[in-house]
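Hey, can you fold this one?
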Amino acid sequence: MQLELTEEERAFRDELRDFFTTKVPEEIRDTVAAGRELTRDQMVESMQTLNAAGYAVPRWPVEWGGQDWTEVQHHIWHAEMERACVPTPLAFNAGMIGPVIAHFGTEEQKKGFLPKTANLDIWWSQGFSEPDAGSDLAGLRTSAVRDGDDWVVNGQKTWTTLGQYGDWIFTLVRTDPEAKKQAGISMLLIDMRSEGLEIRPIQLIDGGHEVNEVWFEDVRVPGDHLVGELNGGWAIAKFLLGNERVGVAPPGVVKRVIARIKALAADRFAHDPLLRARIAGLENELLALELTAMRVAANSVEGRPDPASSVLKLKGSELQQAVSELVLDLAGPGGSEEWERLAGPQYLNLRKASIYGGSNEVQRQIIARNILGL
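Sure. Predicted structure:
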């Protein structure tokens, strides 16, 4: 099955294709194409370029920068952005806290945060996981206690991706220690420059510094930075994680990597039928992933992702890992080309894909319960 575009949709695709390849700086796109790490400034410049044209947060409400597009147009937008090696808008801003504030926030929160969030004037970090509350997120222990008009926060978050760049952090905290685990959780928006907040880097197995610990020691947070209802954070977390799973495993990136390695190792493909068969299997799985992404988008209702987003996250992360393993096998030890040198670190880094956004074991439980009815 292939996506058959109408004449209008092809024109829309061509418009986006021209913009992405002419307006986003070539240096940024080359960095993405090579698999190198983007700098903070490059991420900000790219997202601000998209936002100026209305392409940064198309799924937001129109009054806050979104676009009244069809699901097919959203699919084209995402596919063409990945095809052109344009950095995806920062997920913490565009796909996580932005939709949360738009859906659950007060008018003051929307006015104060959404324009800056769309333009990456605020770089958001995610404060969910803790040392003893990763996949079991409801077990979190970071506390927020009311003191006058403020909240006083104490505790620790971990695996905070790109937290070294963060300006603000959306944080799940326990506001009712006596309630059932899920029932006593709230969400706070916390300025990362607050007194008592400390960021500590974590070095990963690929040698990079992508994630961090965030410590809170008597951090004071204004009372009006509570998002949604008191002790209503679990519903917000489920809403946010559903959106996160939709974008965790981008089919366009996988397609681009497969195309690139076919070009780089063309001689080996010509003489190795087993390698060709391996590629064909990955491409078939990629097609199924693309169709699943379309189904999830088409069946999402009023900002609530379809339960099949768990299927997308599960299979998408497995496919990302399988493709990175193929690249590593082709590169071999001690390669001289840049893609060969990056193969090892990228393979190691993508081991995390089956954990973040809700571990794959948890996704299988969600699929069994919500889709299969087991």
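The chain has a mean pLDDT of 89. Let me know if you want another pass with a different chain boundary.
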